């Protein structure tokens, strides 16, 4: 009887220990999976190099090179570097491993599997990997940036497989239990090391990483999010996303979170606007996905945030430069042609009138010859101001190039284009004074065409206004309409 009771007690202890071990393992597996998702969704190639060999590479880095992860792992990293750049890459890696200074960001060339030349930007930090110094390299394909400009992201990595065995018989229960505990401790330690490795990566990446609960409250974030938000760790903990976004962005994110919750599919938001602690606004590109608990039920959201404020400003600047004259700030020829098409279509639809004015400065070449091109630029800038002051805000002024300007007058039934032209002639012919220089001989010649009287398409309206302008140039400082040209001939 006592023997049976002892065996029963031992069996109960065995079951209890197994339950605790399975719970611990499940927690580590969940944590490891989180960091796997992070590395796989980072926006740059990630390579860990140690002893001049590649110890770890994510799928994006391998994809950039045209190799598989397995083909790149454990190979000498300079095998992939362009021969002309191998020495500098090798030397910089060696310096960092030896704790010597080397530039943290630099560019070099590599050869992909198909021997194509690719430029990479490497952002490098020193980390401890397997107890030894290693370089953590963030690689971005900047080939198009070397030629013009571009970018993008997608990552992959593979977690270690966990193999374990359960005890079979109660006869050797104690021995088998001890053996299983040892084996599971090894697995736990491996998972812990894997978790530490991904924590190191999360803490080092430049992209912000965050987790929120279903109500939108921040539950976890990395150091990059502190830099992006301009806040301290304590200030961000538990804060709701409504507290650091604009009302418009808050509505957008509510819809995004709702869609992710319903479908389980990740979503990338291009223009996520936040308000920093100092009140300034930043524009982020945010990739968001669903977090599930152990029962596969939604428990929150995780995301990777990238600050694209400067890129957005640069894109807006490029758009501005594409449609504006750099000297005067007026619209340019490209903008004029597009606006002519739009204005004409509007006029046809609503039965409105249009007047197109071509303006050419008289004796402007003399300004450049006598006073220099710098003074000529000053005169052109002053002419643009006088043009703007002489027409309505709804009218469209362009500099076509050199000393030629155009004005599109919409619905001229409400006013007289000829009177506008007379006003322009008077204003442009006024003296131009700068420092000790006074220029009082510049005037203008203006040609006007009308829709629908003179033409019904952009090509003819422009041609006729140009013809009228050249007719005005014959005597200078006057305005001629295309209709007058026709009557004179």
Description:
The chain has 489 residues and is α+β, with helices and mostly antiparallel strands. It is built from 16 helices and 17 strands. It is 45% helix and 25% strand. It has helices at residues 2-40, 59-65, 69-72, 86-97, 143-147, 173-204, 223-229, 233-236, 247-263, 309-323, 333-350, 364-371, 373-390, 417-428, 458-473, 482-488; strands spanning 45-50, 53-57, 105-111, 117-129, 132-141, 208-213, 218-221, 267-275, 281-292, 298-307, 354-362, 396-401, 404-410, 432-434, 437-439, 443-451, 479-481.
Defining traits:
single chain, 489 residues, alpha+beta, Beta-Lactamase, Alpha-Beta Plaits, 3 domains, 5-stranded antiparallel sheet, 16 helices, 17 strands, 25% strand, elongated
Radius of gyration computed on alpha carbons: 35 Å
Helix-strand makeup class: alpha+beta
Text of the CATH class of the largest domain: Alpha Beta
Report the total helices: 16
- What is the CATH homology-level superfamily of the largest domain? Reverse transcriptase/Diguanylate cyclase domain
Output the CATH topology of the largest domain. Answer: Alpha-Beta Plaits
**Taking strands numbered 1, 2, ... along the chain, how are they ordered across the largest sheet?**
2-1-5-4-3
Strand content: 15-25%
How many beta-strand elements?
Answer: 17
Which CATH-level-2 architecture of the largest domain? Answer: 2-Layer Sandwich
- CA(first)-CA(last) distance: 131 Å
Number of domains: 3
Report the uncertain regions.
150-163
- Helix amount: 40-55%
What summary fits the major beta sheet? 5 strands, antiparallel
Overall pLDDT? 82
The shape is elongated
